[in-house]
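Bench notes, afternoon.
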Amino acid sequence: MKKHLLILFAAVAVAVACSQNADNRFMPAFTEDFSTPQPQFFFTKRSPLRYYSGVHSLSEENTDVMLLAITPSDPWGPANGGAEIETPRLTHFGTYSARLKMPDLTEVQPKAGVVTGFFTYLFVPGFGLAEIDFEWLMADPRLIYIGTWTSEPDDLDKLQRIGRIVNVETGEVLKTNYYSYRDAALVYEAPSHEFEPTDDAALEPRTIPAIPGYDASSRFHIYGFDWYPDRLRWWMEHPETGEKVVLWDYRGSTQDFSGIPQGPTKYLLNFWHTNNWSVETVPNSTEAPKYQYMLEADWIKYEPFDEINAKWLEENSKNTNTIY
C-alpha cells in the first residue's frame, strides 16, 4: 500500500510540475469578485480616478462591483483613453467569463461612440497575436461583436480578423466574415470575405435563440468563451434559464490563418470611446461622451485547461524563451 501511495504522489507531482500553473509566467485559475478596493488578479492602467473597486453597484442591490469610468475629456481609442484592467501574468487555453452591465446611453446620448471590450490580447514573437474579443457599442446595446485578431508569427502588421455580429434580442446573425492583410495595406481597409455557405465549421450556429428584451445596459449578464487550440466558442447565459446560448462555435480556417490564436496572451477588460467605428444599426454613432459614464463589472473568471496548456508548453519548450 505504501509503495502504491508513493507512486501516486509521484505521478501527481509530475503532473503539477508540467502544468502552466507551475510556471510563474502564467495565471492560475481565479475568480476576481471585486469585493475589495484593490483587485486581486488585475492591475489598473492610467488615472486611479477611473476605477472604483469594492463599491456598491449602481443598478443592483447587495452587489459589490468595480466601476470603470470614461469622461468627456478622454482621448479617443483604447490605447490612450478610457479605462482598462489587465492580468499581470499570462493566460492561455481555457474558459473566460464575466458578469457585466453596460451603461444605458440610449436616452442620454443615442449616438455615443462608447465601447466595452472583454478580451485577450498579446503579440508574442514566434506565435503571433492572440486577441479574442467580446465587444459592445452602446449606441445599440442589443448587438454583440465577437471575433479574433491573429497575425503572422513574427509580424504584427500582417493581421487577419474573423468576426461575427449578433443581434441577441432577435437572434439574428448580422454578419460572419473575415478580413486579411493580403487585400490592403491596412487590414482595416480590406474588403470583407464571406465564408462559403457550406462551411459548417466556420458558420455554426447559423441561428441564435432570441432573448427577447436583451439589452446589455438593462441588467447584468454573464458572457464567456471557451478557447481550445482548434476551436473557439463564444456564449452567454440566458438571463432567465441560466442555460448557455452559443453565439458562435468556430472550428474553421481561412486562406491565411485558422483564426484561432495559438500563443499565450493577457486577459483584459476596457471601456473607451471611438471616433470612427459606428455600430452596425446606428450610422454616425461616434460622438465623444458628453458626461461621465460607468461600466459595472461584478466578477471575472479564468479556468485554464491545464492538460492542454501543459501539452502546449511541452511541445513548444524550445520556442518559449520569447514569452515573458
